[in-house]
Amino acid sequence: HIPQGPVCTNLGLKPGQRLTVKGKIAPNAKSFVMNLGKDATFLGLHFNPRFDAHGDVNTIVCNSKKVEEWGAEHRETVFPFQKGGTAEITFAVNQNDVTVHLPGHQFTFPNRHSISVFDYFDTQGDFTVQSLSWE
After folding, report:
1. Which of 30, 71, 78, 127 has an alpha carbon 20 to 30 Å from 52's alpha carbon atom?
2. Count of alpha carbons within 13 angstroms of residue 55, beta-carbon side
3. Residues 6 or more apart whose Cβ sits within 8 Å of residue 9
């Protein structure tokens, strides 16, 4: 059973805006997920840091999803997360991609489905959200 965190359904994030998530990572964390998209079935960014899950160790896996169809996985080898630690992650929405700001590192992921407004956000797994802010 994967714990489900808060779900936002009317964010209204447009290019030039950003969402910042702060929280705690479980001491025995295997992985956690943050999804950003139009709705639950239409994800522009599936952000999945894996401490030890699905054969990946200390790897961030990103993807996109349209209904039940996943895209190609994108892997980041920089892994600035620690079990039992805190994390602050910012998703900055641009015209053609999303920039993910991590502690000491950032990368961009393409907006493959040309989502113009990101209304949906959820978190799952071994992460407890302490604050959400957007600007």
Report:
1. 71
2. 1
3. 39, 119, 120
Read off the pLDDT of residues 78-126 as tens digits, 9 standing for 90 and up. Answer: 999 999 999 999 999 999 999 999 999 999 999 999 999 999 999 999 9
CB 75 within 8 A of CB 63: no
Indicate the burial class of 29 (C-beta count within 10 angstroms; 0-12, 13-18, 19 or more).
buried
Q: How many CB atoms lie within 10 A of CB 111?
A: 19
Q: Which residues neighbour 111 within 8 Å (Cβ) at sequence distance 6 or greater?
A: 44, 94, 95, 96, 97, 98
Q: How many domains does the chain have?
A: 1
How far is Cα 58 from Cα 76, in angstroms, rounded to an integer?
9
Nearest to 120 by CA among 35, 14, 52: 35
- Give strand pairing partners of 133: 20
Residue 50: give its domain's CATH number: 2.60.120.200
Q: Which domain holds residue 41?
A: 4-134
